[in-house]
Amino acid sequence: MNDSDLVLHLGQEELVIRSRYETLSIANDFLIAVAFAVGSVMFFYESTMHAGTWLFVIGSVLLMVRPTIRLVRRFHLVKVGGSGSESARDF
Fold first, then answer.
1. Which residues of 35-74 are buried (b: 16+ CB within 10 A; e: fewer)?
2. For labelling, which of 48, 66, 73, 90 has a CA lying 20 to 30 Å from the CA of 28?
3. 10: helix, coil or strand?
4. 31-41: pLDDT as tens digits
5. What is d(CA 57, CA 6) in angstroms, rounded to the nearest whole number?
6. How large is the greatest C-alpha to C-alpha distance in the chain, in angstroms?
7. Residue pair 11/48 in contact by the 8 Å Cβ criterion
8. H or E element: which one contains 29?
9. pLDDT, tens only, 14-54
10. How far is CA 49 from CA 35, 36, 53, 56, 79, in A?
11. Count of H helices and E strands in the chain?
């Protein structure tokens, strides 16, 4: 392997886009964790079981949001002339 194999050509705009979508993905993951953790605790009590069920539904919908974020990010990167490809380090 030589030095040219390790060169990445990322523009400033592409780095900003990647950073913003990564932050959005992290926030989404955090909301998923909160919804399932709080929903789980609510299942211990009969009076909050209905609300806990809704938190599980919300958490499930948020699980579907993550691939949507990745897909929108990919289209956005291609639109601005970026590669749109992902690596093992991408979210």
1. bbebbeebeeeeeeeeebeebbebbeebeeeeeebeeebb
2. 48
3. coil
4. 999 999 999 99
5. 44
6. 64
7. no
8. helix 12-42
9. 888 888 999 999 999 999 999 999 999 999 999 999 999 99
10. 13, 13, 6, 11, 45
11. 2, 0
- Amino acid letter, 6: L
Q: What is the pTM of this model?
A: 0.74
Position 40, amino acid: S
CB 58 within 8 A of CB 33: no
Q: Rounded distance, CA 14 to CA 19, Å?
A: 9
Amino acid at position 32, single letter: I
Q: Quick one: tokens of 71?
A: 């897909």
Instruction: Return the amino acid letter for 26.
Output: I
